[in-house]
Amino acid sequence: DQLISQIAAGEVVERPASALKEILENSLDAGSTDIAVALQSGGIKQIKVSDNGNGIARDELNLALTRHATSKIASLEDLECVASLGFRGEALASIAAISRTQITSYHADEKHAWRVASEGSFLTDIEPAALDVGTIVDIQDLYFNTPARRKFLKTENTEFGHCEEAFRRVALSRPDVSLLLQHNGRAIMRLATGSAEKRFEDILGKDFAAEAFYLDESAAGLRLWGMAAKPTFSRHARDTQYVYVNGRFVRDKLISHAIRQAYQDVLHHDRHPAFVLFLELDPALVDVNVHPSKTEVRFRDGQAVHRFIFHALHKSLAAPVG
Ligand code: ADP
Ligand code: MG
């Protein structure tokens, strides 16, 4: 049922930033090396993402938008279940169900680009379009058909802040991709490709780069690398705490705890630590899909991960900064 699928999508696409995250991940999945994000009114009015990835062939275009329109959601009781599953091949369809979405894409197998548009659940025919490379996903009027959901949105500025944070999380982990963020026609962040350190500095500022040290520790199939600052770095109003597991941004209690303990043990307090840390391990030892929209993870051996992170960070924090 259409109404129910709209409500479900509203639950899953919590706010414009949730949609932006999914769209950005799709661009990265498509092998893009250059991505431009243009937002209007905090993403509520428009989220437009242009990339130079592999694109979508004509026959796949419709599917990309309609996958969600299955019989999966049979009743209101299922909604909670849907929300907790988050996106599994249904992000675009969920977003399309509650917005005016247009996708234009060029795929090497086609003579020219194609475009498909949807308004809620109404799809247009696929039409030829002009685009030399990649994909443009243009989402307008998010929640236009779910007014109850729209009421939960905060101010334009707050929603933009969330979008900016989603953009930052992706950008920190992909210094090999150039990125542009625009809001209401103004360029907010322009990021050229380069080293990880350069990207951290571009996003987190010179203060962070100057005070943080580089670390890279490995043991028993686990690797922790990135930059961490001692808590003198407290001028930032915003928390600078980013953790990635196998390239995905996560917010994980176990990891946070290990980090906090290392700081506490060395510095005898854990106020305002600032860090960007990447944990890498055998993908078979971690489940990152526990809750995609809530960025939780589950480790096969949580204790080993905790111990490793604590020791790796402890060692780096305790060493004299050179
Ligand atoms: P998922 O990413 O889980 O497969 P999505 O709903 O996010 O599901 O996307 C549906 C499909 O649309 C993707 O599998 C991909 O084939 C295609 N797609 C979406 N965005 C892009 C893009 N920017 N470039 C190329 N293909 C894309
Ligand atoms: Mg996706």
UniProtKB/TrEMBL annotation:
<keyword id="KW-0227">DNA damage</keyword>
<keyword id="KW-0540">Nuclease</keyword>
<keyword id="KW-0234">DNA repair</keyword>
<keyword id="KW-0378">Hydrolase</keyword>
<comment type="similarity">
    <text>Belongs to the DNA mismatch repair MutL/HexB family.</text>
</comment>
<feature type="domain" description="DNA mismatch repair protein S5">
    <location>
        <begin position="200"/>
        <end position="318"/>
    </location>
</feature>
<keyword id="KW-0255">Endonuclease</keyword>
<protein>
    <recommendedName>
        <fullName>DNA mismatch repair protein MutL</fullName>
    </recommendedName>
</protein>
<comment type="function">
    <text>This protein is involved in the repair of mismatches in DNA. It is required for dam-dependent methyl-directed DNA mismatch repair. May act as a 'molecular matchmaker', a protein that promotes the formation of a stable complex between two or more DNA-binding proteins in an ATP-dependent manner without itself being part of a final effector complex.</text>
</comment>
<dbReference type="GO" id="GO:0004519">
    <property type="term" value="F:endonuclease activity"/>
</dbReference>
